[in-house]
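User: Show me an example of a complex going from sequences to structure tokens.

Assistant: Sure. Here are the input components:
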Amino acid sequence: MVRSRTINPRVRRRAFSVTRPPKSTALTLVMILFLFYALVPLVWLFINATKTQGDLFSSFGLAFGSSFALWDNVVATFTYDDGIYLRWLGNTLLYVVVGAGGATLLATLAGYGLAKFRFPGRSAYFAVVLGAVAVPGTALAVPTFLLFSQLGLTNTPWSIIIPSLISPFGLYLIWVYTIDSVPTELLEAARLDGATEMRTFFTVSIRLLTPGIVTVALFTIVATWNNYFLPLIMLSDPQWFPLTVGLNQWSSQAAGVAAEPIFNLVITGSLVAIVPIIAVFLFLQRFWQSGLSAGSVKQ
Amino acid sequence: MTTLTPPRVTPARVTQEIRTPKRRWTGWQFTWPFAAVFVVAFIAPLLYALWLSLFQNQLVGGNAFVGLDNYVLAFNDPAFWAGFGRVFLFLLVQVPIMLLLALAAALAIDSARLYATGFFRIVIFLPYAVPAVVAVLMWGFIYGDNFGLTASINDWLGSDVLAPFAPQWMLVSIGNIVTWEFVGYNMVIFYSALKTIPTDLYEAAEIDGARGWQVIKAIKLPAARGAIVIATIFSIIGSFQLFNEPNVLQPLANNVITSSYTPNMYAYSLSFAGQQYNYSATVAIIMGVITAAIAYVVQLRGSRKEDR
């Protein structure tokens, strides 16, 4: 949406600037501290996913143990309790594909509709949805549970999917993005050619909106993949758990009377759970870069 | 990424975009699916919660209309206010620290003075992609005295200086986890706002002889104001709704994290341990109203400053 305003700031600054900033080693070193802060827990997770339960207790946290058991741990994670982990992974994928995919689609259509058409009830629509951005999702979780249990929807995938379909913030992003990047003249031209509004949207506008859509998709994917509170209250049958709730259940196994700690599986399961989302994120990040900063050589 | 920048869309501009009158109802073709789900998943629970909050399940007489009794009860409930005070303290300390760190990192990355800028940006943002549950499990292990780093450091120092689960340190430990999760996310919001600054401004500042901090103060910070307001609002919402981190840490520190440690945990345990659905809905509504009100005030103050 800001493409027009960001044409090569760095390049032009270089060409015109008397004070092209020299690279600063001191600043880079300070930022390396920041980098450590972000990375150390992740490194810890990886290193400890290679340890057996015995090694976990006997070796230093950031050093490898006496054996390299990553593969054994991964196999154990996927086979423990009749492969329940795989089931959780599948559930998470289901919630992400249907929930985040649907949320992106609904937010895109609605944001576009609000930006390009005047229709009865439009101002009220706007006011209500933008008001909803400020209402925290988790505040609604308990009431939603109470309502859904009246409707008999709890403990089904629908109880996770339906609330995930709403992304007021996504709608807002697409609205902004549409105003900035879909010229009304283009729609008028399509209209003169006799195309229906829907057809114009799916053949012309959607291409112009792609970077915005990818951004919304990224945020909704992260939100559904990481969702914890909602499934925690909605689901009681482990067969429908997503990874987050399942992993926490494994972790709680270590406490209590019949404690059966499986720390190595919790750690390896956590590692396996973040690999896909980080991969998606890195992949989409590159996608944006090309979409959003086309023409900018900033990075 | 830059789509996160708050829009500067004037009403005039919107009207211009829609200046051609369309067939009146066409817009609903695009907007009805969102509206339909919105009603089911947002409006209906909200109204249902309001309805529930007006009733009480009494021993004698069953479910009875009690007017605002539940609200009176909540306002006199020390457990609720203790949790509220806790998240408020959390908000006052953790949010400024996190946002200042994020802003500093964004300015550093935008300054073009770093080596490997792109690498820094991606890696610092990475924790945002880690599910809160995994983040807390991970930090919980690191904090733990079984095989965590804390234990190693304490061994090495030969003392018990570090006690992340002690009552007086618990909130700090949670704050560290939340900061770790979201500092990169906020950095990216700020960075994308800084990226929209037109080059002419820098050139003009240079001609005027502005350098370093002056450019940051006069150009960069004002340009990031909208983003700062948005990030502050989201952080306020996040703090008041604190649940995941204390909930996942609870088994590790049972004595410290009570079932009413935060208002959201309180609402949760009222519903699921106590079956007090009406009171739970009341607590959720009160927190929602307080959060929305504070977010609204921040937004007003933020945009007023922008006009000046």
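The lines above are the inputs; the final block is the predicted structure for all two components together. DSSP finds 13 helices and no strands in chain A.
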